[in-house]
Design goal:
The protein has 196 residues and is of the alpha/beta class. It folds into two domains: 1-27 and 106-196, 3-Layer(aba) Sandwich (Rossmann fold), CATH 3.40.50; 32-101, Rossmann fold (3-Layer(aba) Sandwich). 56% of the residues lie in helices and 12% in strands.
Length: 196
């Protein structure tokens, strides 16, 4: 079974690309969604976050206090690195466990925004980078998340620039509205099947 990573900066459309792969019967693992679930439901991780960031990291009802953590980490790269150092290893292991369950697949996809930053791209057989023009990314995230341009720019600034991510990609998908996503995915899909 091949492990294929899909990454790209915020607003590039990774999830849309994954939906096209899913329509071809390919199983996908969304690392960002799983990370949110693990932060809530993985007791050792939860305790490690409390130890690092205080009891305010979780609300009285047990929910993760996302706004509290965001205020800390998005203004302090060292604190962001500490949080990632807690979460990423747990997500890595969760993905490996998921792969064992799906070991009979020709290939599976792991979608993650910080795949290259976390080093998890090194564990994949192939990596796909989804790209989109800056203005399109801003518009997509503003419409989806209701964030200001300034807030989005801050998130983008915390991610590795697209120009640097290209060096780690085996395939590039342009999600700019001018190139057919379906055709690009089909082409990669057939190449991956041929490599198995």
């Amino acid at each position: 079974m091949l492990k294929v990573g899909i990454t790209g900066g915020i607003g590039t459309g990774k999830s849309v690309v994954c939906k096209v792969f899913e329509s071809l019967g390919i199983k996908t693992y969304n690392a960002d969604i799983r990370a949110k679930q693990l932060v809530l439901n993985h007791p050792p991780l939860k305790q490690a976050i409390i130890d690092q960031f205080g009891t305010e990291a979780y609300l009285a009802n047990g929910q993760y206090n996302r706004s509290y953590i965001a205020q800390i980490v998005f203004n302090d790269s060292q604190k962001l690195a500490q949080l990632n150092d807690l979460i990423h290893p747990v997500v890595f292991q969760d993905f490996e466990d998921w792969c064992k369950i799906n070991q009979n697949e020709t290939y599976v996809i792991k979608e993650a925004a910080l795949m290259i930053e976390s080093g998890s791209h090194l564990k994949n057989d192939f990596n796909i980078l989804v790209t989109a023009p800056h203005a399109i990314r801003l518009a997509r995230v503003a419409a989806r998340d209701g964030l200001s341009a300034q807030q989005i720019e801050k998130i983008i600034a915390n991610q590795l620039p697209e120009s640097e991510k290209i060096a780690f990609a085996n395939f590039i998908i342009q999600n700019d509205g001018a190139h057919s996503l379906i055709e690009q995915v089909f082409m990669i899909h057939h190449q991956l099947i041929a490599k198995q």
